[in-house]
Amino acid sequence: MDKQKLVVITGPTAVGKTKLSVELAKRIGGEIISADSMQVYKFMNIGTDKISLDKMEGVPHHLIDFLDPHEDFNVFIFQKLVKEAIADISSRGKIPIIVGGTGFYIQAVLYDIDFTETDEDESYRHELEERAKSEGVHVLHEELRAVDPKSADAIHENNSKRVIRALEYYKKTGKKISDHNVEQHEKTSPYDFKYFVLTDDRAVLYSRIEKRVDQMIEEGLEREVRELLEMDIPGDATSMQGLGYREMIGYLQGEYDLDRAVYLIKRNTRHFAKRQLTWFKRERDVIWIDKQEFDRDDEKILKEMIKIYEQ
RNA sequence: GGUGACAUAGCCAAGCGGUAAGGCACAGGUCUGCAACACCUCGAGCGGCGGUUCAAAUCCGCCUGUCACCU
Q1: Which nucleotide has its C1' atom closest to residue A269's CA?
Q2: Crossing angle of the two packed helices A160-173 and A177-185, in degrees rounded to 10
């Protein structure tokens, strides 16, 4: 049986994925699945630059605007929902188009990485988090070295999140996460996919980011964040860690003024874009679309993408 | 015009005679259940010229620039 066809459109934030994806969906008979860790949340529209209903132009969008901001979200949940969405879309004879900038999520789908080996019980993780605070991460890193030296080498000891996860994985499965990673990395994709990564000149990208942040402020990001706080969403919720939200909260709580908040949002978004680019550079099987080479003309870019898609 | 202060990397900033802290930005990178997360790596020889000294970013002189005050 032929593999399921799949199109991925990604790239750094503000590169212009959204508009292009709707147009592509219309031309190839596709539906869009968002691969964005923040656009899943309801009531978070301005800061996540969520696509509006009329801009969807009738193209169905999945995994967007459905989750309450109190809820947690992560790759594992994402992966499960995406599989359902893909099945749903293809059952209707449409092509799933995954659009979004969360590289880790895309990878999880494309290579069907297995995250299911550990259960839901988080008590051991909490215990490790406590110990990291009281005894220091260094101790945990040494413990990791004793059971899984490869991971200890790969994970810097300051990176407590990853040290803890590696330890948790070992405790729960009796296996080394480094071995698991190697296994998963060797997997071939169950899909017949085209993985497009949009990019542009760095300076152009950065100025687009700054312009977009200014726009968000004009559109009322402050009000949006204030309303979320009034809904009693804790500042440390996954949703509130999103770019723009976290910084606005600092401002609303009086830690700094609005100018500082805007500066921080711009800076952090630039950093984010850079990290995204770094991520995609090391991914396999990506097709880079440098907007500069197409005179930043969507029509030319679409033609190129469709040409590649039909191969 | 005069008097005084200051001039150290893209920005902020230590240094006070012994061979340039740190922070931010920028750049590069790691990532397999929080990923819009978390984490790592990374630069100059001190405004210019001359002098003192074994040794000067550090002391002296002149020049240039900036700021402050005065006329």
Answers
A1: B36
A2: 90
Phi, psi of A268 (to 5 degrees): -65, -30
**CA atoms within a 13 Å half-sphere pointing along the CA-CB vector of A311:** 9
Q: Å from A115 (CA) to B33 (C1')? A: 6
Checking each nucleotide's C1' against the CA of A44, the nearest proves to be B36
Q: Is there a contact between A209 and A215 (Cβ–Cβ < 8 Å)?
A: no
Q: State the Cα–Cα distance between residues A144 and A177, nearest whole angstrom.
A: 10
Taking only the tens place, the pLDDT of each residue in A165-207 is 999 989 888 889 999 888 888 888 999 999 999 999 999 999 9
Give phi and psi for A159, each to the nearest 5: -85, 75
- For strand B, give the nucleotides within 7 A of a protein CB: 24-40
Structure tokens belonging to residue A226:
């204030």
Residue A121 has pLDDT above 80, yes or no: no
Residue A226 contacts residue A249 (beta carbons within 8 Å): no
Structure tokens at A228: 């979320």
B53 C1' – A270 CA distance, angstroms? 50
Whole-model pTM? 0.91
